[in-house]
Amino acid sequence: MQIIEVKSKKDANDFLEVARVVYKSDPVWVCPLDQEINNIFDPKENVFFQNGSATRWVFKDDQGNLIGRIAAFINESKANFGDKRIGGIGFFECINDKTIAFKIFDIAKAWLVERKVNTIQGPINFGENDSFWGLLVEGFTHPSNGMVYNPPHYRDFFESYGFKKKMEQLTNHLNITDGLPERFVKIAKYAISKKPNLTLRPLNADRFDECAEDFMAIYNAAWASHENFTPIKKEYVKETFKKVKPFYDPNYIWFAYVDGQPASFVLVLPDVNQILKHFKGKLNLWNKLRFVLLKKRKTITRLRVWAMGTHPKFQNMGLESVLVYKCFEGAMKSQYVEGELSWVGDFNDKMIAIHKALGAVPGKKHITYELAI
After folding, report:
1. Which of the residue ranges 1-10, 92-101, 121-130, 134-143 would you say has the lowest mean pLDDT?
2. Is the CB of residue 68 less than 8 Å from the CB of residue 101?
3. pTM of the predicted model, to two decimals?
4. Whole-angstrom Cα distance, residue 110 to residue 235?
5. Local structure of residue 44 (DSSP, 8 states)
6. What percentage of the chain's residues is helix, strand, coil (to nearest 5)?
7. How many helices and strands (H and E) does the chain possess?
8. What residues contact residue 348 under an 8 Å CB cut-off, 6+ apart?
C-alpha cells in the first residue's frame, strides 16, 4: 500500500478523486464541490488555520489504484478540555476493506499522537459543525448540502477500530405540503401577539455586516456552556453569509430582537444539492450558468434548517417556534415540498421537542465518535 501525504496539486486532486472511486456506483451520493473541500485545507481560506494545523493523506494499492483517504487536524483553541487533548479526523473514505480502513486510521492517529493528542473525535470537520460532521448510520437517502453521506459499512470500520459514540445528531423531515400543525401555529401567533417588544427581521443583503454581528452575538452566547466551545469570529460568519448569498432566500433566514437586542435566529437554506448533484463537484463557468437556469426552473424543492440559536437571556420565550413559523409560513406558498430539520444533538431536548411539535418524522441519524488513545 502506498501512503501519500498531500503536498502537491496532483495529490489534492487524488484526495478528491478517492470519493468518486468509492461512490462510482452509488446513485444517491452527491459529490461536494471540489473547491469547497480544497478551501477547508487552504490556510488562506480557512480561519481555523490561525490556531491549528491539518494534513491529508491519499492511499493507493501497489498497482497505483486509489483506495482511501483521510484528514487529521488539531485546533489549539479547542484542543485542551480537562484532562483531554482533542484532535480530529475527517473526510475519511475507503474501499470496502476493513484491513485497509484500519491502516488509514493508524496513519491519522500517529500524526495526532505526535501532537500529544489523547482523544480523537471523528468524523468531524476542520471548521464549525454545520457541515461535514458525523457518520451517517441511519437514513441513507438523498444528502442535503453540507450533510455527510457514507456507505453503511463505515460504521463497522469505526466501531471495530475502537471508536465509541460521543453523541448522536438527529435529522427529522417535515412534509411542507401538509402545513404546520394548528397547535404549533396558535402557539407561535400567541407568542408574537404577547410580546410588543419583539421585532422580527429577515436577513438583508444590504446589511450583511450588521446581521453577521447579530448572528455571532447570539451563537456565541447560546453555545458558550458547551464542551470545548470556542467563540466564532465575525470573519467566519461573513464568509459563511458570502458563500450562501448566491442562493439564499430572505424569507427563510430570520432574526428576532427583544427591546432591540439580538435574541434569536434561524438559518434555513434551499438544498442546492438537488442542483449540484448534476455537476460532479465542478463549478466551472458552464455549471454556474446551469445553476442559474435550474434554479429558475424551481429544481430545488427541499429546504434545510442549517442552524438555530437563542441567546440565554431570551430563552423560554418561544422565539424558536416564532422563527420556524415565519420560515415555513412562506414555504407553504412556494415550490418547496420538504423541510429537513438538521442536525440536532441528542442532548438538545428543546429542539427535539420543537421538531415533534412540528410533526416532523425521523429522517437520518449521524454519530460523532470518540477514541481514547
Report:
1. 121-130
2. yes
3. 0.91
4. 33
5. T
6. 40, 30, 35
7. 11, 14
8. none
Determine contact, residues 52/77, Cβ cutoff 8 Å: yes
Query: Phi then psi for 41, rounded to 5 degrees?
Result: -105, 20
Q: How confident is the model over 13-29, as pLDDT tens digits?
A: 999 999 999 999 999 99
Q: Do the Cβ atoms of 306 and 343 come closer than 8 Å?
A: no
C-beta atoms surrounding 230 within 10 Å: 16
Q: Would the CA dihedral through 102, 103, 104, 109 be positive or negative?
A: positive
Of 125, 140, 168, 135, the residue nearest 352 (C-alpha): 168
Q: CA of 278: how far to CAs of 26, 49, 114, in Å?
A: 14, 32, 41
DSSP class of 63: T
CA dist., res. 162 & res. 308, Å (int)? 33
Q: How far apart are CA 123 and CA 159, in angstroms?
A: 12
Question: Which 3 state secondary structure label does DSSP give 99?
Answer: helix
**pLDDT one-digit tens code per residue, 285-301:** 999 999 999 988 989 99
